[in-house]
Design a protein that fits this description.
Chain B: Residues 20-440 form the DUF112 domain. The structure holds two protein chains of two kinds. Chain A is α/β, with parallel strands linked by helices. In chain A, 42% of the residues lie in helices and 18% in strands. In chain A, strands 1, 2, 3, 4, 5, 6, 7, 8 and 9 form a nine-stranded mixed sheet that branches. Chain A is globular, with a radius of gyration of 20 Å. Helix content of chain B is 74%, strand content 1%. The longest helix of chain B has 35 residues, at 108-142. Classes of the chains: A alpha/beta, B mainly alpha.
Chain lengths: 325, 508
């Protein structure tokens, strides 16, 4: 506790030093590239609140919703119309990098914005129903390897989307070939996909841990692996990682921000520090706990590299399964 | 009984003055949001979420507020359907078919009153169903696989011919148009873009709200402009409330059927309130509508869809509260709210967060009563809207719709697109192609396609999976009956009716 306090104090001090150089004045906007009620909207609103509480912004942070093309409309807006705005943050997640990697934002790539930082992640899982014949990830993957069509997966994203990619990442790490022939059924959301798995219509569920918590606690769903480097904290510590079962697959769905490339260097430095301070604060820890977010925060200078690597990895995978030519 | 105890606890939560105040506020705001074209229940709930946060409401109060908005929007949608022939939201679309003709016949007040009562009945049936059967029904919904869903949507399309009867071919054309429009955007089962031509704004497909506002509201405006150019249109007579008790009693069976059907389709995730009001209407027409008064202002044509969509709105809470699976767009937003209130959605919510779940259910019951009490006196107020000359009223409504759409999406593209839909709607109406099936195609087409695709993936391309289970077989039979019966029974009935007409020319 003392350590945390010190840390946030140091971070706050660092921010206030920068603050002498540049400080947001006037209205700060957080662009949520989706309709109200979704994950990006949540990122903007909760970050806005905590930033106000911590005094990182003078006034309020206004959340603006700009849905379209899975974030593409907001991305285009940032790149073209707000290229030099110092007071603009845009919510992003693995869905953003996935679409960038698959060239779904025509004419745009990950270099066109500045990646500010991540504020936690929701880790990927692979799960089966209570009555499933598969007890662990190895049995499931053995069946996939023997006959790629034998295990049907359901998830909440479109084909080629993040939920589908998690299956492919895992299968490839397990040594399966014929990745494109693994059947994947896409539903409107993780809940619908899960109810098909629990109802016995589909064999396995791919999604994020926060979606599955309810069915997992009731015992209807058996999570065979979480796609994280280490076991998750708290209630989730019983779930084995894929790594410890010998399958080197990791799938964090991070939440974070990017901002316009043309913003001033002082402004960029300010927001990177602000995100660090926010992440270290007790207020944010409470938000994370309440919303099933798990620690994930690459150091400020590494985040850009992390995003690039993720884009590259997804691009390669998408080529392998024929989604990209 | 244990349930009663829980419900009483729920009432204790919902009936505190503080919560009651928010329920009343929510019901009122919801009604307003519902009757504005362009803002439906999902938007209404989403708009009020930030308010709930800013006010720092406790979880149960926040949920009660949002549930009341949800129920209120379902009530409100019908008002503009009846008065202006412009549905306030997508489930209220079916209410246009008979509600507006009733208003044209000078029975606007009756239509508003009876639809409020039907909404109440539907909501009540749905909530009772939710209380009594939620856990059982949730398990039932789980048995619906892709094949069963496909058969269900097929059933919906099979009965489509019944909705706007004069020329079935035109209905088919309209539905096909809707399905065609629905294919624009990313195809979730292949991950590829269809008909988007590199236009970013089309990538997620076409929002049906745009289509509804464009096709109905803007085309109405265009029609009005045209008639002003020409001879001008006669003012609609307003009429006083002339609903007799006997007439009201005669609609009770319709209310029951509509409420139950709506509730069932609400329970199935993905089907939702639109399917509820739609099936209620078409079935009602098949059962009692042979006299041909449906579509011309039959009171049962107003009652059935309203009972249906309010039953469905309660039904959609079943999978949400018992499984954590949203049954509709609005419940998806409600669910997001629950998650941010630190409540884990899922099968354990009923036991772990009993006070919230039962508080919500009690709020739904109270909300329905409040809404009925609120809506009956408001009938007079809303009917007065009709005495505003259309030359002022229609542009105002259209403007509100524009502002509403823009406030959600912040996209001017959407506005242009809406106008394009309006112009298209104008020409389609000139060709006497009904608009309702277009929206149904747009709403139900993608679900049907998705489930067909999924079923075939599951069976490795074997089509027989579509009619393998007993449930699917049953749905196919009903769909077949829905398609064929009108052609077999129709002529028979018509002959008998003609005979009867000769004997007694008076009919209600």
């Amino acid at each position: 506790m003392f350590f945390k306090r010190t840390l946030s104090f140091v971070a706050a001090a660092a921010v206030s030093m920068h603050a002498m150089a540049w400080q947001p004045s006037g209205k700060v906007e957080c662009l949520a590239p989706a309709d109200p009620g979704g994950g990006w909207d949540f990122t903007c609103r909760s970050v806005g609140n905590v930033m106000q509480d911590l005094g990182l912004v003078e006034g309020t942070v206004q959340t603006v919703n700009m849905a379209g093309a899975g974030g593409g409309v907001a991305y285009a807006h940032t790149v073209s119309k707000r290229a030099e705005d110092n007071n603009l943050l845009v919510a992003a997640s693995t869905a953003t990098t996935t679409r960038l990697a698959q060239k779904q934002f025509p004419g745009m790539d990950a270099d066109m914005v500045t990646w500010v930082g991540a504020l936690g992640a929701d880790y990927g899982i692979i799960a089966v129903s209570r009555d499933s014949e598969y007890q662990n990830l190895n049995e499931l993957m053995a069946a996939v390897k023997e006959n790629p069509k034998s295990v049907k997966f359901a998830g909440g994203s479109a084909r080629g989307g993040w939920d589908h990619l998690k299956v492919l990442i895992t299968a490839r790490a397990a040594g399966a070939d014929k990745l494109p022939s693994i059947p994947y059924l896409s539903y409107n959301n993780g809940g619908e996909a899960m109810s098909q798995v629990v109802g016995g219509q589909v064999d396995a569920f791919t999604g994020d841990i926060s979606e599955a918590t309810g069915f997992m606690k009731s015992g209807d769903l058996r999570v065979v692996a979480v796609l994280a480097d280490e076991r998750l904290p708290g209630d989730f510590s019983d779930i084995p990682t894929a790594k410890e079962q010998g399958i080197d697959a990791v799938g964090p769905n991070w939440r974070g921000f990017y901002m316009p490339k043309g913003a001033s260097d002082e402004a960029k430095a300010y927001w990177v520090d602000a995100v660090d301070t926010l992440y270290a604060s007790d207020e944010w820890k409470k938000v994370m706990r309440n919303n099933g977010l798990i620690a994930f925060h690459p150091p400020a200078d590494k985040f850009d590299e992390f995003v690039r690597n993720q884009v590259q990895e997804i691009e390669q995978l998408s080529r392998d399964i024929g989604l990209l030519k | 009984m244990e349930t009663i105890g829980f419900l009483m606890d729920g009432f204790a939560v919902a009936l505190t003055p503080y919560n009651l105040m928010f329920a009343l506020f929510g019901a009122f705001v919801g009604t307003l949001i519902g009757c504005l074209p362009g803002l439906g229940p999902a938007n209404g709930v989403a708009i009020l979420i930030p308010l709930a946060f800013t006010l720092g409401l406790p979880p149960e109060t926040a949920m009660i507020l949002l549930t009341a908005v949800y129920a209120g929007a379902m009530y409100g949608g019908r008002i503009s359907s009846i008065l202006l022939n412009i549905p306030g939201d997508e489930p209220a679309m079916m209410t246009c078919l008979d509600g507006h003709p009733m208003a044209r016949n000078g029975r606007a007040a009756d239509a508003l009153a009876v639809s409020a009562i039907a909404s109440f009945a539907g909501g009540l049936i749905g909530t009772i169903g939710l209380i009594m059967l939620a856990p059982v029904l949730a398990r039932f919904a789980l048995t619906f696989g892709p094949a069963e869903y496909f058969a269900l949507f097929l059933l919906a399309f099979a009965t489509l011919g019944g909705i706007t009867g004069k020329n079935p071919m035109k209905t088919v054309i309209a539905a096909t148009l809707g399905i065609m429009i629905s294919t624009v955007g990313i195809d979730i089962s292949t991950g590829t873009q269809r008909y988007t031509f590199g236009v970013l704004e089309l990538y997620e497909g076409i929002d049906f709200i745009l289509a509804i506002v464009g096709l109905f509201a803007i085309s109405e405006l265009l029609f009005f402009v045209e008639s002003r150019m020409g001879s001008g249109r006669g003012k609609m007579s307003v009429g006083k409330l002339s609903l007799s008790f006997r007439e009201l009693v005669s609609t009770i069976p319709t209310q029951l059927r509509g409420g139950v059907l709506g509730f069932i389709s609400g329970v199935l995730p993905g089907a939702g309130a639109s399917l509820g009001s739609f099936i209620s209407y078409t079935l009602e027409k098949q059962v009692v509508g042979r006299k041909g008064t449906f579509g011309e202002g039959d009171i049962r044509g107003v009652v059935a869809p309203e009972a249906g969509n309010n039953g469905a709105s309660s039904g959609a809470l079943v999978p949400m509260l018992t499984l954590g699976v949203p049954g509709s767009g609005t419940t998806a937003v409600l669910l997001a709210m629950l998650i941010s209130l630190n409540i884990t959605p899922g099968p354990l919510m009923f036991t772990q967060n009993a006070e919230i779940v039962w508080g919500v259910i009690a709020a739904l019951l109270i909300g329905n009563v409040l809404l009925l009490v609120l809506n009956i006196p408001l009938v007079g107020f809303f009917v007065k809207l009709l005495s505003v000359p259309p030359m002022y009223l229609l542009p105002i409504v259209t403007m509100i719709a524009f502002v509403g759409i823009y406030s959600i999406s912040h996209s001017t593209f959407d506005l242009y697109f809406m106008v394009a839909f309006g112009v298209a709607g104008y020409f389609l109406r000139k060709l006497e192609i009904p608009l309702v099936p277009i929206i149904l195609g747009l709403l139900l087409g993608p679900e049907m396609e998705k489930n067909l695709g999924h079923a075939l993936v599951l069976s490795d391309g074997d089509w027989s999976i579509l009619w393998q289970s007993a449930l699917a077989k049953g749905l196919w039979v009903v769909a077949g009956l829905g398609l064929l019966l009108p052609y077999i029974v129709g002529p028979l009935l018509r002959r008998r009716m003609n005979a009867a007409m000769k004997e007694s020319p008076v009919s209600d």
